[in-house]
Structure formats: structure tokens, C-alpha cells
Write a structure and sequence with these properties.
It is a single chain. By secondary structure, this protein is α+β, with helices and mostly antiparallel strands. The chain has helices at residues 7-25, 42-50, 69-82, 87-103, 106-117, 232-244, 248-251, 254-266, 278-306, 312-337, 355-366, 373-383; strands at residues 123-126, 142-146, 149-160, 167-173, 184-190, 196-201, 210-221, 225-226, 268-269, 272-273. It has three domains: 7-121, Butyryl-Coa Dehydrogenase, subunit A, domain 1; 124-231, Beta Barrel (Butyryl-CoA Dehydrogenase, subunit A, domain 2); 245-383, Up-down Bundle (Butyryl-CoA Dehydrogenase, subunit A, domain 3). α4 (87-103) packs across α6 and α10 packs antiparallel against α11 (355-366). It binds flavin-adenine dinucleotide (FAD). Flavin-adenine dinucleotide is lined by residues 125-128, 133-134, 158-160, 210, 365, 368-369, 372, 374-375, 378.
């Protein structure tokens, strides 16, 4: 595989960097870690949309740019490097748009894709339930067909999108009489339908990026079904491959990485520059090696996508590797910062604006969200190594 960028791609990276540098200089937002999943800023999303950078890979006939997955990877790499607030559009751009393109009706493509590309449609991901996480197929939320609509009853948890989501992706049971993997269907529904209530989940960092979502006799028009009824399991497995494999899995904490290198260059401890401490140099060099390996894993996933294949085991392998790296990075940052590292953002004495503290706490969830590391290793054992199911 040749990972060299073309001249156009190098130009595109520079264009993305110039745009983000300009935004940063104008202080339109504050760089943050987890910016793709926790930093919701509809105005930023609209400015990205105005550049034509949402739906970059989608076909031109639907208003997309028809570019390759590798170009999108370049853009996301830069957004994460700057810690720009991209959460409003991330999920729809990464996986929901692709699902609509593959399984949606012509009407869904014409109606929903432009809304996503204009930066107006923010989709929360409603898969998990209180008793259906790793064993997602055991979910209980029911979608019962009645004439021209479905009636939804049940509960989702850890639904992304914060208070900004205005649409919901929903995986629900349409046929309770068949085996659990067979009776599931996918929907994309407006969040303001009667009978939907949400309650924020305040996570370990104090952020409210996720929700519990309750459905009580919610009437959903049958046009909201995506793909074939009861084909949801197959469809969602493809979607998860896209969810697991982007640069956000290795760069969620990137501003901490750059920040800690800067800190080490500028700081003395007991009169001696930290950058001359051989243990610290060794730890940072080790992290750099691990980061570059993870980055290549992600590049490979983008190339697999450009070959038109869902990167199932590649995505599982990349995410398992990358989230472990992110956790080591956060631990190392805390070790180097010493007591400063434990101070929250905006505290008087904090360093790196409290990003190391946030990264340390937040990274605990990285190996759970979008598939736990144990489950990803199971996928790898089964799909790549060909080991029998345990
Ligand atoms: C920060 C965060 C964000 C999230 N965002 C979303 C979201 O946007 N949308 C959404 O739908 N969900 C989301 N989730 C939910 C996430 O997908 C689930 O937490 C995850 O699938 C694990 O499910 P569980 O928490 O119920 O754990 P369980 O399924 O109860 O698992 C508990 C433990 O058992 C292990 N385990 C379970 N089964 C196996 C097995 N077969 N082999 C080996 N080990 C196993 C697991 O690895 C885990 O360590 C999010 C979760 C977190 C923490």
C-alpha cells in the first residue's frame, strides 16, 4: 500500500489547516479534547458545511463532493489536531449518511442528505439499552407496525448528541417472534416526535454529551424505516465498522499530546529542564512510535473503504489498539504533570487548561464506547484468525 498523499491531497490538507488556524486565531472556539464527541457548536458545523466538507465522500448527484475516504481522513485528522468542536455533524457525516446512501429510499436520500450537508441535521446514535450493550441484539425497544406507521416503546441509553441532537438513529425490534438477531430494524426519526423524552447522562468528566432516551407510544411514519424491515442487524454491523475506525479513535486526546511535549520543553524541575530527563524523553518517544503505528492502522482502514469494503476486522483491530494508546497517553501526561495534572479545566493552577485531567477520566470510556475492547478482540479472533466462536 502506498500511503503517500497526492499533490491535491497535500493541497487539501493545507486548505483545512489554514481554515482551522484562521478559526483558532479568531478565537471562535477553544481547542478541546474529545472535540468530535463532546464539543457541540452548530455555528462551527455550519461553517464546515459552507466549505462543502460535510458529506465529502458522498456522490455528487446528492450534493456531495464525490471524494475518497482518504480525503475525509485528512480533514478529520486536521479537525482533531486542532481540537475543533465538530460533534454536531460528526455522527451523521461518519456513518448515518453512508447508511442512507446504501439502504435509504430515493426520497430519504433527497430529503435527509442535504440537511446533513448543510449542517442542520444532528443525529444521536440510539443503539444501546440498559440491558443491551455488548449483547446489542438482545435489545427490547419495540417498533410495532400499525397501518402507515410504527409505534415505538422502550428506552435507549448512552445516546450521543447531547442537547443538540434533532434526529435520532434508532435500532428497534420489529419482529419479536424470530431469533434475536433477525427481528431488528433501523429508523431515523425526528427527535421532537410526541412521546420522546430525554434525560442527560452526566459523565465522569461532568459533561452532558450523552442521554437516556425514553419512547412512549411514539408514532413514527413508516417512511422513517431505513432499509428492509428486520434487516437491521446486518445493516448496523456495517455501520459499526465505520463508527470504530476513524482518526478520532487515535486522536481524541491529540491536543494533550502536543501540549505535554510543549510543557516538557518549557518546564524545569529542580533546576533541570524536563526535556533532558531521560525517563520522560523515553516515554514521549515511545508514545510517538505507538501513535504513528495507530495512524497507519487508520490509514489502512480508509484505503479498505476506498476499495468499497466495510472494514469490519480492520476497524476492530484499529480501535482496540488506538484506545489503549489513548489511555496510555493520558496516564503519561498525568505522570509528567504531577499534581498539576489532577486539576480540572479552568482551575487557577491548571496546566494545558485541564486537558490532561479530562483525558485521563474520559479515556476510561474509550474502551467501552462503540464496542468494548473484549468484544473487538472477539471479532478479530473470529473474522481474521478464523477461530471458532467461544
Ligand atoms: C462514553 C460512552 C459513550 C457511548 N456512546 C454510545 C452511543 O452514542 N450510542 C449507543 O448506542 N451506545 C453508546 N455507548 C454504549 C456502549 O456501546 C456500551 O457501553 C458497550 O457496548 C458496552 O455495553 P455495557 O456497558 O452494557 O457493558 P456490558 O455489555 O454489560 O459488558 C460488561 C463487560 O463485560 C465484557 N463482555 C461482555 N460480553 C463479552 C463477551 N462476549 N466476551 C468478552 N467480554 C465480554 C465487556 O467487554 C465489558 O467489559 C457508550 C458508552 C460509553 C461508556
Amino acid at each position: 500500500m502506498d500511503f503517500r498523499l497526492t499533490e491535491e491531497q497535500e493541497k487539501f490538507r493545507k486548505e483545512a489547516r489554514d481554515f482551522l488556524e484562521g478559526e483558532k486565531k479568531q478565537k471562535l472556539w477553544e481547542p478541546s479534547i474529545d472535540s468530535w464527541i463532546m464539543a457541540y457548536d452548530p455555528e462551527f458545523t455550519k461553517r464546515v458545511a459552507a466549505k462543502g466538507w460535510i458529506g465529502l465522500t458522498w456522490p455528487k448527484e446528492y450534493g456531495g463532493q464525490g471524494r475518497c475516504a482518504f480525503d475525509r481522513l485528512i480533514l478529520t485528522e486536521e479537525i482533531l489536531r486542532y481540537g475543533a468542536p465538530a460533534a454536531c455533524h460528526w455522527f451523521a457525516d461518519r456513518q448515518i449518511g453512508g447508511s442512507i446512501l446504501k439502504y435509504g429510499t430515493e426520497q430519504q436520500k433527497r430529503e435527509l442528505l442535504p440537511k446533513i450537508m448543510k449542517g442542520e441535521m444532528y443525529v444521536g446514535l440510539g443503539m444501546s439499552e440498559p440491558e443491551a450493550g455488548c449483547d446489542l441484539a438482545s435489545l427490547k425497544t419495540q417498533a410495532t407496525k400499525k397501518n402507515d406507521h410504527y409505534v415505538i416503546n422502550g428506552q435507549k441509553t448512552w445516546t450521543s448528541g447531547g442537547k443538540y441532537m434533532n434526529y435520532l438513529y434508532l435500532l428497534a425490534r420489529t419482529d419479536p417472534t424470530v431469533a434475536k438477531h433477525q427481528g431488528l430494524s433501523e429508523f431515523i426519526i425526528p427527535k421532537d416526535l410526541a412521546g420522546i423524552t430525554t434525560s442527560p447522562i452526566i459523565d465522569i468528566t461532568g459533561n452532558e454529551a450523552w442521554n437516556e432516551v425514553f419512547f412512549e407510544n411514539v408514532h413514527v411514519p413508516k417512511e422513517c424505516l431505513i432499509g428492509k424491515e428486520s434487516n437491521g442487524w446486518r445493516q448496523v454491523m456495517e455501520q459499526l465498522a465505520y463508527e470504530r475506525s476513524g482518526m478520532e479513535r487515535i486522536m481524541a486526546n491529540y491536543p494533550v499530546f502536543e501540549g505535554i511535549i510543549q510543557f516538557v520543553k518549557e518546564t524545569k524541575r529542580d533546576g533541570k529542564p524536563l526535556c533532558q530527563d531521560s525517563v520522560i524523553r523515553n516515554k514521549l518517544a515511545q508514545l510517538k512510535i505507538e501513535f504513528e503505528v495507530g495512524r497507519l492502522f487508520m490509514y489502512r482502514v480508509a484505503l479498505v473503504m476506498d476499495e468499497g469494503r466495510a472494514p469490519e476486522w480492520e476497524a476492530a483491530m484499529s480501535k482496540a489498539y488506538a484506545t489503549a494508546f489513548e489511555q496510555r497517553l493520558a496516564n503519561t501526561a498525568l505522570e509528567i504533570l504531577g499534581p498539576y495534572g489532577q486539576l480540572a479545566p479552568h482551575s487557577k493552577w491548571t496546566k494545558l487548561n485541564g486537558m490532561a485531567y479530562h483525558a485521563y477520566l474520559s479515556s476510561k470510556g474509550y474502551s467501552l464506547q462503540a464496542g468494548t475492547t473484549e468484544v473487538l478482540k472477539n471479532i478479530l479472533a473470529l473474522r481474521k484468525l478464523g477461530l471458532p466462536t467461544g
